[in-house]
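for the writeup, i need someone to sanity check this before i put it in the appendix. the sequnce is what the collaborator sent (i think, or maybe the updated version? ugh). structure was predicted straight from it, no edits. if anything looks off just tell me and ill rerun, i have time this weekend
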Amino acid sequence: MNLLFKCAALALAVGVTFWAVSGAARAGDKKLKVGDKLPALTSVDENGKTWKSSDVVGKKILVLYFYPADFTGGCTKQACGFRDDIEKLGGQGVEVVGVSADSPKTHDLFKKHHKLNFTLLADEKGELAKMFGINVGKGGKAKGIDESGNAVEVVRNATIARVTVVVDRKGAVAAIDTVKDAAGDSKRIAELVKNLEK
C-alpha cells in the first residue's frame, strides 16, 4: 500500500511539473501587440554589458528599432538617420535603441565607425524580436570596418526583419511597425512620438 501511495504521489508530481512547464511555454509563446504592457526585457549592448528596459520605461519613450544587419546599406542609412535626429528625439524624452542579431563586437565596430550616439543590442538568437512577432531568418555575412579602417568580414547567426517598436512612458506598446523607408524611419518616429505626447 505504501508503494502504491508513493507511485501515485510521483505521478501527481510529474503531472504538476509538466503542467507548469507547458503553461510557461504557452505564456512565453504569446506575441506582444499594440496596447500590451511591456514585460521586463534584458539584453546585451555593444560593450557586452547588460541592458534593462526597466532603466528606461516609465522615464522616457522607448524606441526599439530592429534591423537586419550592421554594415549593410539600408541599415546604415537607418542608423545614421537616428544618429542625426537623436537630439530632436531626445528633446522629446525618447531613448533610441537599435537591435539586430549581430554580436556585441560587430555592434561596437559599427557604432564607432558611424559615430552612433545610442545603444545597440545584440539579439543574437532573435529572442527579443520574436517577442514582438518579428520574423527572424538565417544568419549571414557582411563587410565590416575595423578600428583601423580596414575591411573585415562580420558574421551573424540570424537576420531580423526591419520593424520599429515604440513603447510609451507608461510602458505600453504604442506601435509595432514594419519599416519600408529605412532612411526616413527616424523622421517618421519623431512624428509618431509628437502625436503620442499630445
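The helical segments are 2-29, 73-91, 104-113, 127-131, 185-196. Residues 1-30 form one domain.
thx in advance!!
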